[in-house]
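Lab channel / #folding
Pinned by the channel admin:
"Please post every new chain as: sequence first, then the structure tokens as a reply. Keep commentary short and put observations after the output so the thread stays searchable."

First post following the new format, from NK:
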Amino acid sequence: MEESSESDTQNGEVFEGPEKKLEVYLGTTTSGQNLRHFGQAAWAELLADAACTILSKKSNSECDAYLLSESSLFVFEYRIVLKTCGTTTLLLVLPKLARMADSIGSSVELLQYGHLRYKFPEQQIYPHASFEQERSYLKDCQLGEMFHRVLAPGKGCSWYMLSAEKALAQSSLAVVSPLDSPKEGYDILEIAMEGLSLEKCALFSRQQCNSAASPGGTGVPERDLAAVMTEASGLGDLLPGVLIDDWAFEPCGYSMNGLRGGFYYTVHVTPEPAFSYASFETNDPRYRDPSYVNKIVSIFAPTLVAATLTTRRIGCELPAYSLPSFDCTGVEVQELGRSASVCSLNFSRTGQDAMVVQEKVVRAEKSSIDLIKANFACSVTESGVTAGHGGGRDTVATSVGSL
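Reply from TO:
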């Protein structure tokens, strides 16, 4: 798939879909307080440092799930998972998070940070302008011994990982997950996908979903459109029994959080064909089964797939996935400090299929601006646009119609 031109990038006519992801574990406390004692206002204040806002919140007995203008936040008693996309400044939340931990008599025991290689790295700002800058900033936070890994370097889908781990001798707290007995739900599966088929991109276009939206609905267009996208794409069938919180962005884009007991699920879609991207993430171990991974990939029909599993133990592995019409281009397992590992598998669509997709994308890039605006409803109202994953920018999206 062709990269957008440098001039387009400089003009802001692109969006960085791949998310930055931060996972932080605190030590347990004797005070009876934990991270869920902080209300939405406290998390909104923290998220301001990452340049994103809270759109919605869903909770169950195990977790508070916040749907954000740029991705998602999941808050457990002694653990958070925070994902932000675009040019957000995720690592800048760390000083405030450390103070929040201190206020309940706890501290950071383990931090894991990672992201797929940026497609438009020149757009990132401090402290994310480079992997070296991210490493330097995390080191300055002094949260523990530092470790870093780059999986599949130079192969197109490199995965960058940083870790900060408090030495056991320094900790006076009970670690949430002892190294020899990680709890179910502590391992995280991430599937990052690029080059979505034009037909799949269209499922997340406002024009198509506007025509299919129920006349009743919730009265909130972003929710009503998102409900159509969730069902039409097959995501609803993929997640039976899951409490879903979804949102359709202006001018385009889709985000979804889900909860089921102690398991969380999150999906984010940037549907512009020139730089399309989708991600699926969960701590539910059954979704590592090859049948589920095949379903997830088929929902988006990408040309590139990067699947990673991050664990709270030394040594991890994913099944030997066999994705129809894909070649496995890399398998790698790395230790990440003394108490974690990461496994990465990369796939690319086989030659002929990939050529067909690329030809359609090139045709889409040459579509008229009128068609672009019609298909993605990219007009900006006088009051502005709603910030969001794949949204929050007044760029012109690429048409997927008339192909």
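NK: The chain has eleven helices and 16 strands.
TO: also worth noting, The first strand starts at residue 20 and ends at 26.
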